[in-house]
User: What shape does this take?
Amino acid sequence: MLLLVRRGLRASWGPTALLAVVALLAALVASAAPRAVTGIHARQVVHETSALTPLTRDVVTTRAGVAGAAGLTDAGPGAPAPRWAEYLDGLEALRAAQPEPLRSVLGAPDLGVTTGELGTEAGPASDVRHPTLLLRAAARVLDHVRVVEGRWPGATAVTPAFGGVGWGADGPVEVALSVPAAEELGWQVGQEHPVDGNPFVPAVVLVGTYEAVDPDGAYWAHQPAGERPLVVDDLNMGRSAQAAAYVDPSMLRVAAATGATTRAWFPLDVGASPRTGPDDVAPLLAQLRGLTGRTLEVVPGDPVTFQGTTEVVGTLERLAGQRAGVDAVVAVLASGPVGVTLAVLVLAARLVAERRRGTLALLSARGASPGRLRALTALEGLVVGLPAAAAGLAAGLLLVPAGPTAPVTAGQVAGALLAGLAPAAVLAAAGVPRGLRAGRADLAGPARGRARLVGEALVLAAAAASSSLLLQRGAVATDRDGVDPVLAVAPLLLALAVSLVAVRLAPLGARALEVLLARRRDLVPFLGAARATRDAAGGVVPLLALVLAVGVAGAGAVLQSTLAQGVTHQAWAAVGADLRVAGPVLGPDRVAALRDVEGVAEVATVADLGSRTLRVGVGGSSAGVLAVDAAALARVQDGVPGAVPAVADLAARAAAAAGDGGAEAAGGTGGDGSGPGGLAALTTAATGVRAGTPDVGLVAGRVVPTDVLATVDLLPGVASAGPHVVVDAAQAAGVLGDQPRPRLALVALDDDADRPAVVAAVRGLLPTAVVDDPAVQADALLGSPVAAGLRATSVAVVALAALGCVGVVGTTLLLGAPERGRLLALLRTLGMPRRAGRALAAWELGPWAAVALGVGAALAWALPVLVLAAVDLTALTGGDAPPPLRLDPLVLAAVAGGFLALVAGGAALAAATAPTSTDGALAERLRAGEER
Assistant: This one.
């Protein structure tokens, strides 16, 4: 058998080499693709969690009281310190009791105790008008500081105070300040300073200064005002500074007599640790919910318990949603290459069988059983498939190396092994010829026809069931690991079902075309249409593959356009304008200066007037009031996604009220100053007050009649949750009696403005302001590992589908080459020109390509609709609502043009590898036809 295989490969190795190439590519993808997707998720974990601050990342509890102080009653010189070692051991035991992976990502616990704010005095050289202290003691602070001058504080003797109600310090309490804090307050080591707010602490004495070992370390995020003071400059109140003054832990009995807060925390290392991969996100999320959802006793009898909080829970929920969305998109995109690969394997196996037809028929005539013949063809597939699969597995490891968070799994090896066994399987199933005579493809027997009908019915039923299940279930984001099996198989089943329907309907159109072309005088179009219907090379497999390739490529383009549009829309909805400026109070002078910046077209301010009572009849509820420059806001948000058209109506009503104000005052009407229709306002849905609701009033010392023009969502760029009323700033000043002090401005730019230059100018004008640019936000989200990974996946899928299209077209034309050659040889003897061969090949392929393009376009729309209906892609766009489907005509036209180019390229490749039509070749083909 090996000798026959070797001779067969020597005689005709091209089709078998195609099987080897397909096995190599399939093994490479099966090996590398799962690790690549896992790597995308792993990088996204690092990307999301590294953006968190220690305050939002770590598991923190803040409880009233002093941890470890339960049962301490002795006092006097050398008063006992809280039993922090015992408390920390309890926290460590709590950490050790957690399951993996949570136990591995929780760091060593730590704690600190801080008193309430105490007033004090600044030194004569300081310009601080309002200095305050936070007396604090921390368990491991000495591991994070370096004493610069003096020493670390010690204990001060204490005695009973206020009739035994508490313990007071006999003298000044020793404290230590950071070097920046001491310089800001103008304190020197050895100086005493009085304090206000704690009757048990008469004064403090600075005995030492320190500097942080790691000023940027996460430790100081949990020790506010510890590394440097918190300084605020206020034009009206003057300069204020707050500093943390560290004391000996034994002095907490005195310092905390009027109140203290214990802050304990576990550092959390999720993304930066190689111990935690994307597969650990779901269990880690569940474990963190369990840890933070209950109150735990740290030390028996100690009232300071542990109830942790962390914003990592929300981040992990978003990561889980992102993973579900990415896996769904990848599952849809993978259906195309999988289907095209199977089609190429089947066609290549048929081509091998055709090339081996004579040998196999001769062996069968000499007594070889069908099983032996299938074993012979399967052996040929093993000889080429297994080495190719091994090479593909190795290439996949080189292309996407294995790592701690993306290891080589048994599934990847099994996938490569299946790729190596696939050529043997398809060659064995390609069929054993019963003789040398070939049959018409459209004259299948009754049994074969019934089997095909049953198979097609099963595919249609499965596609309908899976799609219906996904649509009924609705869009969900799942925390479950892995790909939803229904979602994974539904796109492929839907594509197969649509393709099978197209296969059944396409011959009807082809036969009609054949009847139409029969009236023409030229033969080639009619002959090509007849061969495409009656003797199509490859049967229905090429059409299935081409439909899958076009449909999935188009679906990938539609999904990418949808996600990109969703990201951009969300960025603009969050910022609300070309730029958003927030921070300092934006008075008229600053607003005028913003308008004078080169490139700025308009500036609209938004001021928060606080909460007011919104009355309807005799009842009422609290609602926040936002005062906007309505006319400017309408111009700024013209064309912004999510802009509220009713803002223009608000501006018109405010202008009308301003114009009627003087006449009404002269005539003695309009005493409220709000114009003929009352104070114009917009309400959010949370208020429950709709447009046109009668007897609405806003309470501002008195009830101001209010006319609700519209009920709207939140204004783009104005992040205000809960019930709100939006009014015009000019009307608010005249009617409500409030002078708006806006801290938010939405800025529109000229069309030709230099955005970076404008941003730099605004930041130079307002150094403390935060300037947001929607383009920058969108680029940041589109540059995330998930977005970049999806783009790379789409490119890879399109490339694989393109290679598959070339393989399908080329193999299909090569399969039909013998019959077409014999037909052309006969027609050449009757005078047909030589160039008719290319036209005949094009006609054989053209109708199916046209059907594939039309059906594939429909599939390119149906698959994204199915994905959006089944999976919540909100986490991928950063918004609060699923993105709407977007069909980009230019992208879809590029997909269609690329498909036509691939079909033409595959036809050219087949023509280049086909035998030349010399006179000797024509005679040989005619003799072969007679022998058959």
Observations:
- The first strand starts at residue 59 and ends at 64.
- The CA atoms of residues 31 and 411 lie 9 Å apart.
- The two ends are 27 Å apart (CA to CA).
